[in-house]
């Protein structure tokens, strides 16, 4: 592949426009996006600074962006137009893994990159070494697209389908947080009118897989904040399996975890009680707990801490009751709750029981209003709104058994307070600890019964890594009479050599519909010419396309399109091409599958996971499914179970 010349990026023209990072890609900034994807990209690149210095180089442009935070940060956006002839691999593995392998190969790809200073320096260093060593050729030079560690790298095919390849936020040394990068990418996709965009979710936070952590806390991956949802899973995981796994792991009752883990791990019940003390509602399931902790993390300042311990009620200076009377009323209410034997009782029931000792109903109302998730002695007073009756209810939780000191006696008030003081750092430690003990490193006690679901559900969620967002879909425009007397019509092409696959599904034999714009006085013949021009421009395998007829419209070539094609109609054209690859599938992203996949998990196609081939039958299987750990190299000789069994059954030689 030809190289990019980034040296020119250091020699900017004085007065070159600088764009606001947080607005780039919005309507009208820097351009109005009113056409299909490929036209919008061309319109955007007119505002870029050309980085191409010779005909040997692939076309590229750059944009200066400025991000304002505490101080302005200068960022470069590079857009690289990669023609299919310059690509090292014409077929797109990303398309194959997410189910788009039936798409035709496009003539061009557009790479959008936010490189770090290190990646630019690495490229320029290789460029300088290559220039000093005259023996180096263009193909041997380092290429910006091949370098790793970009702040962001996304690629679009010219038909509007794309892939987000990498996002590296602050933890990876970037000046931008991950959510700022995603907001920028989302604006680009929306503005350019991309059809669908996929990504491989490998995002992590302090060693925790975010698709598992956020799946437990929010029921969706971290990228779900921007509309990305389950696209396809590895190891034959389906959407239904993914949804059931989310429901199972979110609904795991906390009391069962405490019962099975609390005896061997005293820290877990302490963590549960710590956040129950801070919550205004009852935390019943594992999903409730992680949702509360993640929400608290988003609101808790990094440098501050919250004291989750509340020892009784402190009377304010403006309170009309003395601290002694408030404390006495608190003890009466706690004793009334003790007599309820730790069951949930309504506010009115507690109030009536306390009135036998305290006649001042105003004082009781004040204490009941203030007494929620407070620790009084060895008890945590919990308050929650009954979801059925909509009535406030109270109960006591005995925390003395989860807060013993080393001598076995109860903790002092000061030591309890220390345990319940939380900072942002402590919160992240607690999240990591629960993630490790419950989700990652399950003990043998978790291997049986209902807890086996945690391991299975976690594995399914982790295998659901390919996410897709539909931006404008297969039909990005309404079929309507446009401005200036122009008509927008959806059209696609079915090649004559592919007519035999119609019974198996015509959609797989046809590229996605393209919006063709023509005057309302255009004829059917002119429409066919416009369709032919559009599809030749987009697809590599249709460069010699000849449109012959309209399959689902009975019309003559001289008939006017307007009046024959009603609003909302989609037209299918029949055509032919001289490309040889059409006969063996080489013009499709999946290419010609030369090997067979038949894995015990049910997979019949490659999904990006590590595989091994049997040396006898040459059938491919996942290494994980045949019990070869990822930490172990693939053996030089491998036999699948079926071939092994056949060898065993062979008669022995005399």
TrEMBL record:
It comes from the Eukaryota. One of its GO terms (molecular function) is zinc ion binding. SMART domains: PHD. Residues 598-644 form the Zinc finger PHD-type domain. CDD domains: PHD_MMD1_like. Pfam families: PHD, Ubiquitin_At1g33420, WHD_plant_repro. InterPro entries: MS1-like_ubiquitin, WHD_PTC1, Zinc_finger_PHD-type_CS, Znf_FYVE_PHD, Znf_MS1-like, Znf_PHD, Znf_PHD-finger, Znf_RING/FYVE/PHD. Keywords: Metal-binding, Transcription, Transcription regulation, Zinc, Zinc-finger. This is Zinc finger PHD-type domain-containing protein. The lineage of its organism: Eukaryota, Viridiplantae, Streptophyta, Embryophyta, Tracheophyta.
């Amino acid at each position: 592949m030809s190289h990019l010349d980034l040296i020119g990026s250091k020699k900017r023209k004085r007065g070159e426009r600088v764009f606001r990072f947080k607005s780039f890609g919005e309507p009208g900034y820097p351009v109005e996006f009113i056409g299909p994807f490929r036209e919008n990209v061309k319109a955007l690149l007119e505002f870029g600074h050309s980085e191409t210095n010779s005909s040997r180089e692939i076309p590229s442009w750059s944009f200066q962006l400025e991000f304002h935070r505490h101080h302005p940060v200068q960022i470069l956006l590079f857009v690289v137009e990669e023609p299919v002839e310059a690509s090292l691999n014409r077929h797109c593995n990303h398309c194959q893994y997410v189910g788009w392998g039936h798409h035709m190969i496009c003539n061009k790809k557009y790479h959008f990159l936010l490189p770090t200073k290190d990646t630019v320096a690495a490229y320029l260093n290789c460029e300088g070494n290559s220039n000093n060593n005259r023996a180096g050729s263009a193909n041997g030079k380092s290429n910006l697209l091949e370098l790793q560690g970009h702040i962001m790298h996304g690629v679009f095919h010219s038909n509007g389908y794309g892939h987000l390849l990498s996002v590296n936020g602050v933890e990876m040394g970037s000046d931008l947080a991950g959510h700022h990068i995603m907001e920028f990418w989302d604006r680009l996709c929306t503005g350019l009118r991309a059809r669908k965009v996929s990504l491989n979710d490998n995002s992590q936070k302090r060693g925790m897989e975010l698709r598992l952590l956020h799946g437990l806390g929010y029921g969706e991956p971290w990228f779900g904040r921007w509309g990305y949802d389950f696209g396809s899973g590895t190891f034959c995981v389906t959407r239904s399996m993914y949804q059931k796994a989310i429901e199972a792991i979110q609904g795991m009752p906390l009391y069962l975890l405490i019962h099975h883990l609390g005896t061997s791990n005293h820290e877990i019940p302490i963590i549960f009680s710590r956040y129950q003390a801070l919550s205004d509602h009852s935390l019943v399931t594992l999903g409730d707990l992680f949702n509360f902790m993640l929400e608290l993390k988003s609101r808790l300042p990094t440098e501050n801490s919250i004291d989750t311990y509340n020892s009784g009620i402190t009377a304010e200076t403006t309170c009309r009751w003395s601290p002694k009377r408030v404390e006495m009323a608190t003890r009466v209410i706690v004793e009334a709750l003790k007599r309820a034997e730790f069951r949930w009782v309504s506010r009115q029931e507690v109030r009536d029981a306390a009135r036998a000792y305290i006649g001042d109903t105003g004082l009781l109302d004040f204490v009941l209003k203030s007494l929620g998730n407070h620790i009084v002695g060895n008890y945590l007073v919990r308050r929650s709104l009954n979801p059925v009756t909509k009535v406030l209810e109270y109960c006591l939780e005995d925390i003395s058994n989860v807060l013993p000191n080393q001598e076995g006696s109860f903790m002092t008030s000061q030591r309890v307070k220390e345990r319940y003081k939380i900072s942002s750092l402590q919160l992240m430690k607690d999240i990591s600890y629960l993630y490790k003990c419950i989700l990652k490193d399950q003990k043998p006690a978790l291997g049986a019964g209902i807890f086996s679901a945690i391991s299975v559900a976690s594995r399914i969620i982790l295998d659901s890594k390919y996410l897709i967002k539909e931006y404008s879909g297969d039909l990005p425009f309404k079929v309507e009479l446009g401005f200036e007397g122009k008509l927008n019509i959806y059209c696609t092409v079915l090649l004559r050599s592919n007519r035999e696959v119609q019974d198996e599904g015509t959609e797989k034999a046809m590229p996605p519909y393209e919006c063709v714009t023509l005057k309302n006085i255009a004829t059917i013949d002119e429409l066919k010419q416009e369709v032919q021009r559009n599809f030749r421009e987009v697809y590599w395998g249709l460069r010699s396309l000849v449109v012959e007829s309209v399959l689902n419209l009975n019309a003559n070539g001289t008939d006017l399109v307007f009046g024959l094609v009603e609003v909302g109609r989609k037209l299918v054209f029949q055509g032919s091409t001289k490309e040889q690859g059409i006969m063996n599938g080489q013009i499709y992203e999946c290419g010609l599958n030369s090997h067979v996949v038949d894995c015990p998990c049910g997979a019949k196609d490659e999904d990006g996971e590590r595989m091994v081939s049997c040396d006898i039958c040459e059938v491919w299987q996942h290494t994980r499914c045949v019990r070869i750990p990822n930490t172990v190299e693939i053996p030089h000789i491998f036999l699948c179970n079926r071939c092994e069994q056949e060898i065993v059954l062979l008669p022995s030689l005399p």
